[in-house]
From TrEMBL:
Pfam families per the UniProt record, alphabetical: Cu-oxidase, Cu-oxidase_2, Cu-oxidase_3
Keyword annotations from UniProtKB, A to Z: Metal-binding, Oxidoreductase
PANTHER family the record matches: BILIRUBIN OXIDASE (PTHR48267:SF1), CUPREDOXIN SUPERFAMILY PROTEIN (PTHR48267)
PROSITE patterns: MULTICOPPER_OXIDASE2
Organism annotation: Enterococcus dongliensis
Keyword Oxidoreductase on entry: yes
Protein name per its UniProtKB record: Multicopper oxidase domain-containing protein
Segments forming domain Plastocyanin-like: 99-212, 273-333, 394-506
Annotated GO MF terms: copper ion binding; oxidoreductase activity
């Protein structure tokens, strides 16, 4: 009798527990509105994960960006790297990953990592059709790799986790640039050390140019009217040091300080003209929504892998880690002495100080920039469909229920074939997060988001796409190079925890 009573109490208690957890889950699911606009708005107001349930059930951090107390400093412009051999068809670059010390904040210098310098890296310019050799040297204390994010090149030169370089060693890669003009970037990709190395400063830029980009007459005076903006968040201890282990979060490390090209609270002096900014969203995990403080529109002209067919007028632009965009901002109507602010999640990513008038090549917002095939339903018929399910939180993150294994090939793909990749982001009892999904060695097109057409500024070449909770994103992917390529979440801590797979293209 006593035992039966005990059993019933246990059953009732379990039922209450299941009910409670279930209703929290349902509450979470239905108190969120998944339309793009609301996500952007909520992200902008910084409230995204103040949701008590998220705090309880997932580790997703929501560290607010602090307004900077530091006075405005001139924006650092990454140097353009000189080629070490001058020949139009074949160029060579030398890149050294090294430790450094950099004046980021007032007072003590910060111990950092950088390429060929103290912090971040230079710009590597390359032209379509060129043969490029890059001699890489690892002067770090630990192993690293040099991953060319967005380049469509064979996997043995891609710089993924299979191509690590031990401390003190060198390696050369040679490839041909076979893709159109675009703003790409490079960063480390060694398994287990990607996140900390990026957080401490390893990231550089690659500009691909072609006949089309030269003919478009867009602003192209580097550092004057064509300026790269590597936007990142980091935290600093009282002694101005970056402490990755202390800031570490298994669902994505965030910092409370916004940096653009390593500059806190930066300014540039600009003439009244069209300004071109090449934005790289380069945080470990923070997604940024960019806007102008005047709320004026600007034009997006390029996505991750090249120009859009025509400029897209926007009031705000969301970029998750790994994504890039080129935007044009019209400063012509402002007066000498005015300041326009580019905001990232309401923090100042750049102060544009207007200094003097300059008549320049006038950008026409209706201008045709590119000739990307629009996707029609017919062309998708008969294509293979690859399901990619992104699931889990923290150390449970996985793709198709599997965590990364260097010795396992997850997918086999045919060279030169096109496929539809259906990327699903499933929430779990543990919580929900948006995952920036990146595929190596390809530039893809977004077919749809939850069955609907993507936003017009997403109708360009992409290598990274933000997949929101409970969202299904369809991609048109074509494999142009043979070898073993990674696909993964670009929240670097998720990638480290195994939200990554490998496909063999042959
Ligand atoms: Cu993720």
């Amino acid at each position: 009798m006593k035992n039966i009573k005990k059993k019933w109490i246990l059953i009732i208690l379990s039922a209450i527990l299941i009910g409670a957890v279930g209703s929290i889950f349902i509450y979470k699911k239905y108190t969120r509105n998944y339309t793009e606009q609301s996500i952007q708005k909520v992200e902008k107001s910084g409230e995204r994960n103040n949701n008590m349930m998220s705090g309880m059930m997932g580790n997703e951090q929501n560290l607010d960006l602090k307004p900077s107390k530091q006075s405005e400093r001139q924006l650092l412009i990454p140097p353009v790297l000189e080629t070490s051999s001058q020949n139009e068809e074949e160029i060579t670059y030398d890149i050294v990953a090294r430790e450094g010390e950099f004046q980021i904040k007032d007072g003590e210098k910060t111990e950092t990592l950088g390429y060929n310098g103290e912090f971040l890296g230079p710009v590597l310019r390359m032209k379509k059709g060129q043969k490029v050799t890059i001699n890489t040297t690892n002067q770090l204390a630990s192993r690293t790799s040099f991953h060319w994010h967005g380049l469509k090149i064979p996997s043995d030169v891609d710089g993924g986790p299979h191509q690590t370089i031990e401390s003190g060693e060198k390696k050369s890669v040679t490839f041909e640039v076979k893709q159109e003009a675009s703003t790409l970037w490079f960063h480390p990709h060694p398994e287990g050390e990607t996140a900390s190395q990026v957080y401490k400063g390893l990231a550089g830029l690659m500009y691909v140019e072609d006949e089309n980009s030269k003919s478009l007459n867009l602003p192209e005076n580097y550092g004057i009217d064509d300026i790269p903006l590597i936007v990142q968040d980091k935290s600093f201890k009282a002694d101005n040091q970056i402490d990755y282990e202390n800031d570490y979060n298994s669902d994505g490390t965030q910092g409370d300080t916004l940096l653009t090209n390593g500059t806190i609270n930066p300014y540039v002096e600009v003439n009244n003209r069209w300004m071109r900014y090449r934005i790289v969203s380069g945080s470990n995990s923070r997604t940024f929504t960019f806007s102008l403080d005047s709320n004026e529109p600007f034009y997006q002209v390029a996505t991750d892998g090249g120009f859009l067919n025509t400029p897209v007028k926007l009031n705000s632009l969301t970029l998750s880690p790994g994504e890039r965009a080129e935007i044009l901002v019209d400063t012509k109507k402002y007066n000498n002495g005015d300041t326009i602010k580019l905001l990232a999640n309401d923090s100042v990513a750049l102060n544009m100080r207007i200094r003097g008038r300059k008549t320049d090549t006038t950008f026409i917002p209706s201008k045709k920039l590119n000739d990307i095939n629009t996707i029609d339903e017919k062309s998708l018929e008969g294509l293979n469909r690859q399901i990619i399910n992104l699931k889990g939180m923290s150390h449970m993150v996985n793709i198709n229920n599997k965590q990364f294994d260097m010795n396992r090939i997850d997918l086999y793909k045919k060279l030169n074939e096109q496929e539809i990749w259906e990327v699903n982001n499933y929430s779990s009892m543990m919580g929900e997060m948006a995952h920036p999904f990146h595929i190596h060695g390809v530039q893809f097109q977004i077919i749809s988001r939850n069955g609907k057409q993507p936003r017009s500024n997403e109708n360009g070449w992409k290598d990274t796409v933000l997949v929101n909770p409970e969202e299904r994103v369809e991609l048109l992917v074509r494999f142009d190079h043979a070898g073993t390529f990674m696909y993964h979440c670009h929240i670097l801590e998720h990638e480290e925890y195994g939200m990554m797979g490998q496909m063999e293209v042959r």
